Amino acid sequence: MISGAHVLIYSHDAEADRAFFREVLGFDSVDSGGGWLIFALPATELAIHPTEGEDNHELYLLCEDIEATAKELERRKVPITRPFDEERWGSVTRITLPGGGRIGLYQPKHPLAHSKTGAAQSRT
């Protein structure tokens, strides 16, 4: 029934953020017309968290070693929030995109849903 998911990031500089995902993170993409890139994401999972506040949504990229990933991103001049937050569910930080937006990066301490399907992929 469901064949995938499509994630949106709203940006004040979409071209710079597209270049970041293509050139810095190395994500593959297709041009859906007129330079509008649609990126392939690594294996993905979805968590539903309860809230009493606004129903905002977040994007986190997962990694196996947050320190090594952060060092590589910093080598590529990507701003990373330090120190990392240590949560019950993982080590967490934020990446600032060229357009000014921020996305999460974390090394999970919990089992990964996509590891059950064999769909795990590694990026950066």
Précis, in short:
This protein has 124 residues and is an alpha+beta fold. It contains 2 helices and 6 strands; from the N terminus they run αβββαβββ. A hairpin with a 5-residue loop joins strand 5 and strand 6.
Uncertain runs with pLDDT below 50, 5 residues or more?
none
What count of domains describes the coordinates? 1
Question: What's the overall geometry?
Answer: globular
CATH fold group: 2,3-Dihydroxybiphenyl 1,2-Dioxygenase, domain 1
Percent of residues in β-strands: 15-25%
Q: Major sheet: order of its strands?
A: 3-6-5-4
> How is the biggest beta sheet arranged?
4 strands, mixed
SSE ordering: HEEEHEEE
How would you name the CATH homologous superfamily? 2,3-Dihydroxybiphenyl 1,2-Dioxygenase, domain 1
Structural class by secondary-structure content: alpha+beta
CATH class: Alpha Beta
Total beta strand runs = 6
Give the helix tally.
Answer: 2
Give the overall average pLDDT.
89
Question: Helix fraction?
Answer: 10-25%
CATH architecture tag: Roll
Rounded to the nearest angstrom, the distance between the terminal CA atoms is 31 Å
CA radius of gyration is 15 Å
